[in-house]
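User: Is it possible to get a 3D structure for a protein together with its bound compound? The compound here is HAX. I've pasted both below.
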Amino acid sequence: MVYISNLNQNIPHMSKLLKEKISSQLPALREEAKSIAKNHGSKVIGQVAIEQLYGGMRGIKGLICDTSEVGLQTGLVIRGIPILELTEKLPEEIFYLLLTGELPKENELKDLQKDLQNRSEVPSYVWDVLNALPEDSHPMAMFSSAVNAMERESIFRKSYNEGINKDDLWEPMYEDCLNIMARVPQIAAFIYRRKFKKGDMIPPDKNLDWAGNFAKMLGIEDKDGAFAKLMRLYLVLHSDHEGGNVSAFTCLVISSALSDAYYAMTGALNGLAGPLHGLANQNCLKFILKMQEDIGESPSDEEVKKYCKNILDKGGLVIGYGHAVLRITDPRFSAFLDFGKNHLPDDNVFKIVSQIFEIVPGLLMEQGKAKDPWPNVDAASGSLLYHYGMKEYEFYTVLFGVSRILGFSSQMILARAMGSALIRPKSVTTEWIKKEIAKS
Ligand code: HAX
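Assistant: Yes, that's possible. Here is the predicted structure of the complex:
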């Protein structure tokens, strides 16, 4: 079968405003980076201890990421704005903010939304690829396969092969990222409905915002609009988490080889699928459901405490707790907890989430192993989705992935715009480390 390429020739409205905004900011940003590297290039900003080599490079300052930062005591801050001040925004607004450092004005938001709607047609072969996968494939494997399959649409690869000027390489990267961002809600919704036998694909509604449309295509019953509200919040809260987490770092490493956004995001999604990263949200709900199975639907505080202590005593993990970087209650958890208190205070699963929050930090502190005894983003989100009828927790990481594509995209577009170098740290051998130790 011959498939028609979806390259952008026929798209009636492509956003100019966001691209123009980035273009207008670039000269000063490039000048600043050049000047910092030229005038302060030899300034030392950190040391590397051997324990960091054995500890996943934790804390080594080795990347520049301007979209967001995660402070030990602040949690996620996007372009200087704490995430808890952004919970009423739309994901499209967050994308604009990540990229430019500014929230869009009304006309800029409308322009971006229209652009995304016009790019949203998914190439037909993607449905064939997804339909060809066994139904028991994990939704994340389906999701990353679909993104990888779309690589033939890459405008970046085509432009590179045609010899585009190095300074302009960010523009086709931008086009690829916007195309992916516009199409993933439909792909994710298709995966949900096919995998969990929810019925035919629901067509997109071009009058809705990006997350509202996604909520509609998932087909979850939503009489009062609360599920769409949750989706907007979910896609905002998961959008970015600076540059060093497994998925964002993977994305940056792959794209630094001038691989296009399809290749880079596929790799990033595969990293997100790991249980210590994005898969924790599915495991967290699984953990609570198992607890209900073991000690009852509505356990007492004492029963929850005994159950969690037993897990910790056996060397197990309390999923949804701890973080590689944070040392406070993740503000994204607080946002979800607030949503739950406002919309579903009497839900049994949500009640357990609240009980665990009161109990587990104390147990982890008592145990003294986890550096961060506080809940992370994954500790509450599953209970909210479950309440609205999205009970298939294997799907939750796909939602995370749809959202994080905003962060992957903005980080990659900016890295390309700034002409970021090929990422290639030096590895050392154990013999070399032993020799270094012997010297001291
Ligand atoms: N329950 C029990 N023990 C825990 C723990 C938890 N929630 N969190 C950390 N620990 C233990 C570790 O297993 C480790 O034990 P060992 O020394 O015996 O190996 C010790 O405490 C020190 O770990 P750490 O330095 O505090 O944690 P890391 O930075 O190595 O890992 C993790 C951070 C998030 C992976 C870890 O806290 C964890 O496994 N938590 C549970 C899984 C989870 O919630 N993951 C989601 C993270 C958020 C995210 O990225 N989402 O995408």
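DSSP finds 19 helices and three strands in the chain. The longest strand covers residues 68-71.
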